[in-house]
Design brief:
143 residues; alpha+beta; HIT family, subunit A; 29% helix; binds guanosine-5'-monophosphate; binds zinc ion; HIT-like_sf
Amino acid sequence: MSHEDCIFCKIIKGEIPSAKVYEDEHVYAFLDISQVTKGHTLVIPKQHTRNLYDTPSEVASNLFAAVPRIANAIKDTYGAIGMNLLNNNEAAANQQVFHLHLHLLPKYSEEEGFSAIWKTHADDYSMDDLQHIAQEINKNVAN
Ligand code: 5GP
Ligand code: ZN
């Protein structure tokens, strides 16, 4: 998807209306229309990237630099007792909008809105297995 067709680029430019939570030189944050929980916010870089895979470190740094302040603002405003941070990359991981975004999902109770099912496979891996996997991945970390 080109920048011209990207709905989040249009939101940054004001061509599509949004409920803006925060903005600086590098970052735009606005309420997710789905409001999975009250205050559910999307934090996006002003520079268009598809998702984490094509995002330069500098863009990621500038994006994340704003996150703790936004998270605290949501927490303080509505008294959230917790918060999940979620980032979906590619369709297989439920990415629907192809402009990098972080979901900030405040929690007000155990039951409400968002939960992640965490299926452990710890019993399937020995420490040697884990060391092997870690080394394989490490070899592919770009400098
Ligand atoms: P994804 O599944 O790609 O991680 O999440 C995309 C999110 O963008 C969804 O939670 C959806 O509700 C939100 N979204 C999609 N279109 C719009 C829009 O036009 N305005 C706002 N505020 N949120 C949107
Ligand atoms: Zn975009």
